[in-house]
Design goal:
about 120 residues, alpha/beta, 5-stranded parallel sheet, 4 helices, 5 strands, globular
Length: about 120
């Protein structure tokens, strides 16, 4: 494990946004932007130490821009597949995936990532 690198936090935007019935389905892109801005302002609540936050968006939320503190990646296809690819590519680093998706959680834990649910990043 590369403990000198900041914790890589990969957020499943569609899953986190979809976990609260606040009308997000009317403006998926806007909902992803609000999540991005909250992550940029607050980071991951309850965590100390350096972190690199990657917000993975898909579908109607594609094209959301990165901001200082949060890199946004638009998945070309499945957001889950993109997240698995990011976890695999970051091999030796500590990785935390934020999602409630059971299948995705199983896929990334097989690669050595930790997982936490949407409440970890919801305001």
């Amino acid at each position: 494990m590369d403990h000198d690198s900041p914790l890589l936090v990969i957020v499943d935007a569609a899953n986190v946004v979809g976990s609260v019935p606040d009308g997000w389905w009317r403006d998926r892109r806007g909902a992803a932007e609000r999540l991005r801005d909250r992550l940029a302002a607050e980071g991951l609540p309850g965590r100390s130490g350096a972190e690199e936050i990657v917000l993975v968006v898909e579908g109607a939320a594609r094209g959301v821009a990165s901001v200082p503190g949060v890199r946004v990646e638009s998945a070309p296809g499945s957001g889950d597949d993109h997240i698995v690819g990011l976890v695999a590519a970051a091999g030796g680093r500590s990785r935390l995936v934020v999602t409630a998706d059971r299948e995705l959680r199983a896929r990334v834990t097989e690669l050595g990532a930790e997982v936490t649910g949407p409440r970890a990043v919801r305001g």
